[in-house]
Hints:
The chain folds into two domains: about 5-140, Jelly Rolls (Sandwich); about 145-260. Helix content is about 55%, strand content about 15%. It has nine helices and eight strands. The protein has helices at about 5, 15-25, 80-85, 105-115, 120-140, 145-150, 155-170, 170-190, 205-260, and strands at about 30, 35-40, 45-55, 55-60, 65-75, 80, 95, 100-105. The strands form two sheets. A four-stranded antiparallel beta sheet has the order 1-8-3-6. A hairpin with a 5-residue loop joins strand 4 (about 55-60) and strand 5.
Amino acid sequence: MDAANLRSVPLFSSLDAKATADLGKYLTIHDYPHSATIFRTGDPGDAMYLVDLGKVGIRITDADGHIVTLAELGPGDFFGEMAMLDGQGRSANAVALEDARLAKLTREDFLTFIGSDPRVTLELLTALTARLRRTDDLLRHRVSRNVNQEEQAQLTFADHAADKIAEFGGSWKFIIVSLALFTAWVITNTILLTRKPFDPFPFILLNLALNVITAMQAPIIMMSQNRQSHKDRLRANLDYQVNLKNELLLGDIIRRLDELKKRPRD
């Protein structure tokens, strides 16, 4: 990378000609074909990269197993600096979105360089802060989630029991079982036990059992319906957030298109 390209990197834009020339001595150039993996999550953070040509995507896999692209970097951008600074493993994957040429700066060479020019440290902190804010905003506004999974994760044992009881109480199985039980109860107390029936006509014990079942079944079904209402509210809230995010993204796209129209054409 020449001095002009180095100074286009926000991290090194404040360097003078001598410092830029000194930095160039530490860089090594590497070419990556399209779709090549530059590093993966967990790889040692032993270097940072500056994009000279091409485009690089920084990606992570979220809790749902979906690949989220945090940033698409082009010429003048840099990446890999976080893991290089703390010496920990990589926190994301870096993939070449097209044929790319990168300048690599190792951790050892970088520490030597910033020791000779403290201004780079301040520039690096400023750039890191801006990138962290963008990442936080992206993840905070990512609202496309599965409502069923969100609601399922909050269920208690009582909720599961209420759903099962409500599902059975509102089915033909419950009606058939109830009719069979009532018929057997009446036949037993009128025909089989003619001398000493345990519940003679007008079947007061049967009526008591039915009242108890009805009294218990109604609030259980209401609990299940209330939870369904909560699920509907959660779905409506997520739909609103998705629509709001799409509206904001569309507004940003329109703004960028307006900026492109205002630029002078060659």
